[in-house]
Amino acid sequence: MGKKKHWLLHSQISGTVWFAVVLIAVLALVFFFFPQHRGTSEQGSKEQKNIVELQKKEDSVYQSRRQNSPSRERHLSHRQYSFQNRECRQDSPRILSDDFYTTAPSVPTRQPLSVELNGADSTTLQLLHGIGPAYARRIVRYRERLGGFVSTDQLLEVYGFTPELLDHIRPHLTLDTGNLRKINVNTLTLKQLIKHPYMDYYFARDLVNLRSRGVTFSSPDDLRAVPSCSDTLLMRLLPYLEF
Fold this sequence. Notes:
The chain has helices spanning 2-67, 70-90, 92-95, 98-103, 122-125, 133-146, 163-169, 190-193, 201-212, 231-237, and strands at residues 115-116, 173-174, 183-184, 241-242.
């Protein structure tokens, strides 16, 4: 019986000790684990709040920068100008008086291009739209052979010139025929006469032959005595003839 009582007493003591150990472990978990978990969750919620506040600050800074950006300033100034301009238009009968038109500075207008065909050099001729360096050189060379242009239609005799191009530049051309180089039919040799583009070789030869016989030409009608003369040839040469 003594041993049995002793074993029961030992079992009760052991059970009490183990119960105390378990209770202490549970209390340790409650007081040490759960407060730390709450602290972690509270810290996480604080970080989330800080992130939200930071985003709000960034959004406010971004909005303020957009409002103060140059594009917005230009937009606001444009709106202000449009509003002021609209007010000006509404008040225009009162503001735009007779004094305004008399004191307002005049705006210079661009003068239309004008080229004198007989006096322009190749550089000046290139100011005409459609006239490049090649056309300009051809015009100058042909003008030298003619002794000067008497009509803008003579540009069609320049190599490569088209009626469309002539019609395009004609409004910008002027002609001064006061300094034409003349052909003296009584003094020039056969070689000199045939240099002119309009001079026919047979006409020049017959002209020189008549001169060698003592004939002197004093008017265009006298040239009709030349055997190879024709009305068409005479009309073309007439502006360049000198007696």
